[in-house]
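User: quick one, sequence for these tokens?
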């Protein structure tokens, strides 16, 4: 018998043959019967089994497995045929692979299982199948993320609901201490945030930096998410590890829409961080004129000093923030004028209480 190895067939021709969706079982049988190496890898580290999974060619998968193809062989990214079936929602192929020994919790180089991949690609049917066959629902990738973290990131509401209903931990933390709610806020995934809160997610849970989901919404100027979180009990004066409230974070990132929401719900406008700075100090440091004007118009103390004795005007001057300095000086003049008028009036009417 003439032996034909995959190495002796040009790789581009090999891939052309293998990648045809209409490839027949008979074609595969012929190649194998002539000595084709079914575990030979191409330049991407993919075997014939990977390619068959890509094309959802269940018949070819059956032939390859029956002739000894390594069912858990990985490509250069660490993906097995089962990972690929999860990407393309190939339920029948996945079912066959699992029934023939595919490791359902096998991980890629990034630590992702087939369930992570199904969640990432919104493959609910495949996710259901994997869970029903024993996939670890709370398995973490190398970043400490579960399938629920990934579904939350992509705002996959249906997948999120399914995972929670099957026991996913809604307060699980990744390597940065972020829960799924942090991730939802980070990616402006309001629908997912609603599902998580309705199932008991801790709205004031902190990550490793001491930040809540509301801090993250403020960072991203996600007004809608911020309003939703506040309406469900988020603490608007919660401090992170640097003593910063959500208003500090909003000022730091020029998030005016979120700053407006926070102030309208009672955020302490003159709250200080661990350095004694208010949101106005931070706006001055970042040359955020619009934020500074907004804060002043809502009662920010322009003469408040930080732990170094600096006011917002000192900071604006040091940072050559001319526009901010002008705003602060003008507000100072108005303040002095009003104060002077009030003192004069008090002198004229000593028994009047102001």
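Assistant:
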């Amino acid at each position: 018998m003439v032996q034909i190895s995959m190495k002796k067939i040009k790789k581009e021709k090999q891939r052309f043959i293998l990648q045809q969706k209409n490839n027949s079982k008979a074609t595969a049988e012929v190649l194998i019967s002539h000595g084709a190496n079914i575990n030979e890898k191409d330049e991407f580290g993919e075997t014939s089994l990977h390619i068959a999974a890509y094309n959802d060619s269940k018949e070819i998968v059956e032939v390859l497995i029956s002739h000894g193809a390594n069912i858990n062989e990985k490509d250069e990214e660490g993906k097995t045929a089962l990972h690929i079936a999860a990407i393309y929602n190939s339920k029948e192929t996945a079912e066959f692979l699992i029934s023939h020994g595919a490791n359902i919790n096998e991980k890629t180089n990034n630590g992702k299982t087939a369930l992570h991949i199904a969640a990432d690609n919104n493959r609910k049917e495949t996710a259901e199948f994997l869970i029903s066959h024993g996939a670890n629902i709370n398995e973490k990738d190398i970043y400490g993320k579960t399938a629920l973290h990934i579904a939350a990131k992509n705002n996959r509401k249906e997948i999120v609901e399914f995972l929670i209903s099957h026991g996913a931990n809604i307060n699980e933390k990744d390597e940065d201490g972020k829960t799924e709610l942090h991730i939802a806020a980070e990616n402006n995934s309001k629908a997912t945030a609603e599902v998580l809160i309705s199932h008991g997610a801790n709205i004031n849970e902190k990550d490793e930096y001491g930040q809540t989901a509301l801090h993250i919404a403020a960072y991203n100027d996600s007004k809608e998410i911020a309003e939703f979180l506040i309406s469900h009990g988020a603490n608007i004066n919660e401090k992170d590890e640097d003593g910063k409230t959500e208003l500090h974070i909003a000022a730091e990132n020029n998030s005016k829409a979120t700053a407006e929401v926070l102030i309208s719900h009672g955020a302490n406008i003159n709250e200080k961080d661990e350095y004694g700075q208010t949101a106005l100090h931070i706006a001055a440091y970042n040359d955020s004129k619009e934020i500074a004007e907004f804060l002043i118009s809502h009662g920010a103390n322009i003469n408040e000093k930080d732990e170094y004795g600096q006011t917002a005007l000192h900071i604006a001057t040091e940072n050559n923030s001319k526009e901010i300095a002008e705003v602060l000086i003008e507000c100072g003049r108005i303040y002095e004028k009003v104060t002077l008028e009030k003192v004069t009036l008090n002198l004229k009417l000593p028994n009047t209480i102001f």
